[in-house]
């Protein structure tokens, strides 16, 4: 949420917000918002004046009654009745305009950083750096689904039978790898000073709205029937909401982490993204959330820090990746600046998104009303940031595919071996390759 006072008083701000809304594909008219704001303010003033008149006349009636002037009191009562009728109409008008205003207010986008690329889709994201070289196989390599089936790690048909499309089972080594990469990420973040939290997976509509996942992302969430509860698509929601409505101490940045299940409807996605484990309804994430003072240099530094954390994890997993600066058309409403990390996936012959880092400035904290006191004691809204340290089972795609060997086995990265009881590789089943 942006500061309405700033929007009203600055023509440049109005033009910038309209430009960003258009670039982000948000159907918002800043001009209409300002017109509604003017109308609601005028109606509110009129309503308050009528209430004051009514209150003054009510006191006059009491005085007249005490003085025994019943006729004058009755005439004044008629005036109060007329005012109440006008007030009833204007209050209804105000409620209607206020509702329309609040609806548009929730669509205002965050501004974007000066170095954010302008573009229409992820095709316009700009590569910042590449780390590691994609493997060159001298054998017919398999994709993660074939590897999962070969090693008894992934069972998609039974997942679909049980839960419908985009569902799966992880079994045996698949489930162990799934848990191992999460624990590796957790241990790494805790060592870096993050506070680990176990968070609610169901939240109220208010929490989704306050963290700016609603209203624009509502079609991506699963609602619990007949309740004001939603399954979270990321633990960012409960982590930020932990401090909603509070005044916090950010003399040192607040670093939070959570490992949680996540749920998304994935409406509108299609093509190769629905194959295998890439885009599923249920997954697990280890999330980083940071709250800090409202200082652009501080939050930029922290954005680089949490992005580096995700890159460090990929280094431990010995996976080639690239970092891209996300363009305006691929950013969400709430984001000021964003990096995506894409990991090489041989079966796609391309890099696929596995991590995302975002700086939201004070946009999310304004909606959640999270504040701190600055050096002068003035209350200000915090800056918030978030990053996916790891998301599984998507990370299993590059992990299995990049580390497969010609004999059908899968190499386990050294950093992951302690979480796999020292196992160095997942051996191919007996008889592999004999039929070829």
Structure description:
There is one protein chain. This protein has 436 residues and is an alpha+beta fold. The chain has helices spanning 4-9, 11-23, 30-67, 70-105, 144-150, 156-163, 173-191, 205-210, 236-241, 296-316, 363-368, 396-402; strands spanning 126-131, 154-155, 169-170, 195-197, 202-203, 222-223, 230-231, 254-263, 282-292, 321-325, 337-345, 350-359, 371-373, 379-381, 383-392, 410-411, 425-426. The strands form five sheets. The protein has an eight-stranded mixed β-sheet. The chain has a three-stranded antiparallel β-sheet with strand order 5-7-6. Strand 11 and strand 12 (350-359) form a beta hairpin. Helix 3 (30-67) packs antiparallel against helix 4. The longest helix is centred in the first third of the chain and has 38 residues, at 30-67. The mean pLDDT is 94.
């Amino acid at each position: 949420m942006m500061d309405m006072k700033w929007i009203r008083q600055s023509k440049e701000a109005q033009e910038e917000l309209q430009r960003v809304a258009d670039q982000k594909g948000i159907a918002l008219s800043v001009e209409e918002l300002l017109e509604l704001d003017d109308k609601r303010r005028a109606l509110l003033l009129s309503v308050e004046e009528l209430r004051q008149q009514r209150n003054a006349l009510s006191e006059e009636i009491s005085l007249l009654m005490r003085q025994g002037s019943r006729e004058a009191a009755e005439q004044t009562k008629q005036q109060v009745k007329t005012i109440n009728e006008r007030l009833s109409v204007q209050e209804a008008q105000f409620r209607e305009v206020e509702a329309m205003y609040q609806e548009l207010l929730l669509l205002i986008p965050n501004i974007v950083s000066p170095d954010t690329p302008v573009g229409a889709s992820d095709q316009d994201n700009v590569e910042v750096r590449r780390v590691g070289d994609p493997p060159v196989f001298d054998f017919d390599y398999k994709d993660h689904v074939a590897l999962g089936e070969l090693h008894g790690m992934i069972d998609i048909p039974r997942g679909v039978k049980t839960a419908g499309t985009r569902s799966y089972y992880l079994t045996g080594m698949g489930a162990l790898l799934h848990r191992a990469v999460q624990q590796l990420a957790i241990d790494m973040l805790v060592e870096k000073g993050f506070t680990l939290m176990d968070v609610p997976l169901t939240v109220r509509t208010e929490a989704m709205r306050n963290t700016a996942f609603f209203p624009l992302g509502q079609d991506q969430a699963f609602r619990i029937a007949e309740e004001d509860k939603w399954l979270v698509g990321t633990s960012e929601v409960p982590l930020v909401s932990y401090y909603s409505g509070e005044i916090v101490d950010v003399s040192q940045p607040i670093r939070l982490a959570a490992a949680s299940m996540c749920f998304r409807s994935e409406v509108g996605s299609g093509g190769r993204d629905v194959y295998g484990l890439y885009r599923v309804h249920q997954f697990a994430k280890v999330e980083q959330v940071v709250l800090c003072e409202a200082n652009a240099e501080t939050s930029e530094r922290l954005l680089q820090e949490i992005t580096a954390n995700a890159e460090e994890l990929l280094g431990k997993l010995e996976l080639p990746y690239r970092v891209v600066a996300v363009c305006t058309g691929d950013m969400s409403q709430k984001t000021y600046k964003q990096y995506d990390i894409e990991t090489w996936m041989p079966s796609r012959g391309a890099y696929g998104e596995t991590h995302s880092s975002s700086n939201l400035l004070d946009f999310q904290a304004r909606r959640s009303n999270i504040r701190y006191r600055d050096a002068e004691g003035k209350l200000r809204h915090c800056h918030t940031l978030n990053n996916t340290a790891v998301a599984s089972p998507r990370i299993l795609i590059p992990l299995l595919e990049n580390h497969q060997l010609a004999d059908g086995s899968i190499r386990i990265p050294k950093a992951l071996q302690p979480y796999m009881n020292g196992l160095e590789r997942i051996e191919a089943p007996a008889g592999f390759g004999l039929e070829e």
